[in-house]
């Protein structure tokens, strides 16, 4: 076997200087057969090295026989061949078992849905966005109609139950109708617990579903392929909308998302259907919306202290002094407002902040400058 430099020299003498094979053999002191072999080859190919002998060689036939009988693990095979006299290490056995029995790759069927049958929902992480004097974690809610692939996208600063329900409601309003089923994963806002095939849904989510007339279906644990429409949609949002987007102000994100939905996402030619989601949406058979929107806010009864202040969602708000030491109701809903009322009178509405993330100075400044009192 000659080296690469010698091969290049043979090719140069033969193709460029047009020497004969015997002349090249004499010049390079090589055998005539060697020069004849390499002179006409267009590329240099090193000969394959013969396989090195292995301590496992005497046991390979037995390993293949064992694997044909049962799906033994590599550790079990290692224990068996040690009993037969194998003196090598486990890594050699593991490498050979992987060659003989490649790890099977999961295969999935493509699900097909009828118009209006199903929507799939999921949360996605979008990074961090400035809010006031701090930065907040930005999430996005995505609902995809399984038949037409039309999607609804909304960004939030939390993934709480009230955000989850409000985004559902906004999606139904965007589609101007409700599907028969909504497929979710096992997030705590939807599924409290599951034992086998028995699923305990969150009671407020069930109440929300009954209000709008759809059924909830929880996908299997760690089975994202069951709701592949929305999983692919989350990736599409990250690659097409969020990729390269500068998140400078939370107030600008949702208007930009709505514009992207109407001009890009829902009017593109879908790779699988070869039609636009908006075109197929005309065939969706959605149920009509409930005439009264579901109240998604978290409603609590609180009492103002003697300094006419109440506590809502971890923040303290001042109310008119005449409500000191009286009982009132707070409703904390989708960012950004909290409403305070008595049984007969609306007292005030304030922007909602997050005490877990905002600085104390930011919360005080927001409350002092933005609260609106009602007589």
Care to describe what's here?
It contains twelve helices and 14 strands. The protein has 375 residues and is of the alpha+beta class. The protein has four domains: 4-39; 57-100; 118-281, Nucleotidyltransferase, domain 5 (2-Layer Sandwich), CATH 3.30.420.10; 298-373, no CATH class. A hairpin with a 2-residue loop joins β5 (191-195) and β6 (198-201). α2 crosses α3 and α5 packs across α6 (90-100). The longest helix has 15 residues, at 161-175. The protein is elongated. Residues 335-346 and 353-375 have low confidence and may be disordered.
Quick overview of this protein structure:
With 375 residues, the chain is an alpha+beta fold. Helix content is 34%, strand content 21%. It has 12 helices and 14 strands.
